[in-house]
Amino acid sequence: MRFSPLLSELIDSLTCLPGVGKKSAQRMAFHLLERNREGALKLSTVLHNAMEHIRHCSQCRTFTEKDLCEICAHPQRSESGVLCIVESPQDVLAVEQTMAFDGTYFVLMGHLSPIDGIGPEEIGLTILESQLKENPVSEVILATNPTVEGEATAHYIAQLCAKYKIKASRIAHGVPVGGELEYIDGNTLTHAFSGRRTL
Amino acid sequence: MRFSPLLSELIDSLTCLPGVGKKSAQRMAFHLLERNREGALKLSTVLHNAMEHIRHCSQCRTFTEKDLCEICAHPQRSESGVLCIVESPQDVLAVEQTMAFDGTYFVLMGHLSPIDGIGPEEIGLTILESQLKENPVSEVILATNPTVEGEATAHYIAQLCAKYKIKASRIAHGVPVGGELEYIDGNTLTHAFSGRRTL
């Protein structure tokens, strides 16, 4: 015996969510059926709308249902002439929450990873190149993750900037504020030493 | 800055799933948008159908989109004359997987819990009583969970059975097969001793 066909289908469909296996999907299905049918119906509608309407911003490639995202559409932001390059829309949010940056972004939606077949084209570097050619910015801040792939991507984009004589900078890597030296890994500490600044 | 309105709404809606907070919902939304729009659209449809069509079986109260669930509709199962009472549809599945029971079920969809306002009516005991009155079974097996509420519920239903002179039995509680005495909690061990059987 299995659950009724429709219930089995619901459980199967819920496993499309990341980190949700058979057991969690079962728990979710029963929770929604027993306690939150209204929420589930709303989720169904929003899910449909989101999948149908959310596209990439034509300028920075982040997710948005409009042609230009809020930041790209903001006149003062594009005037600043500073472009920050990040790997994902979540990174945009993280930078925005610091309130320390008032330029525009370019979201790669990934990083260079030739082994997975992800080249410059896939992470939108052709779009970025044409943007740099047409509207040169005063500085490009490379805020990709400090992983091997992130570093390689930053390096690649730095070369691209050099080609158009645009200043490229990399965000600092070092000891996190509030962190204790004792517990910092060697790699980070090496970065902290090589990136030291004169006081 | 926040995400675009539709994306924020999607993230909010995903938190209606149990065990999914803001961060997990964000991760899910981005995963679906980036990698599995098709799966998300399917989930949206199935979710809608399930919430609209899945109701309770008119006989055993489990979830089904038909009037009678598969087990209640099975002629041989109702002939056996044994009724097993469980707390949830998941429990039905657990018992079914043992292949050791061929009677029918009654699903309480909860347990007696006066403190939360859950009385006999809420867990379908009025329906159960009228069923026992009209179609007396030869035995009622009480398979509620061995928690305080589960025991109280079992006790209440046993009294109901006594009223209609129906044999009521409780599933055995004791040391799980494959378990080691050393690691079993005292409560379970007490049950195992008081429920001992002559060999």
From TrEMBL, chains A, B:
Residues 81-176 form the Toprim domain. NCBIfam families: recR. Keywords: DNA damage, DNA recombination, DNA repair, Metal-binding, Zinc, Zinc-finger. A zinc finger (C4-type) spans 57-72. HAMAP family: RecR. PROSITE patterns: RECR, TOPRIM. This is Recombination protein RecR. May play a role in DNA repair. It seems to be involved in an RecBC-independent recombinational process of DNA repair. It may act with RecF and RecO. SMART domains: TOPRIM. Belongs to the RecR family. CDD domains: TOPRIM_recR (cd01025).
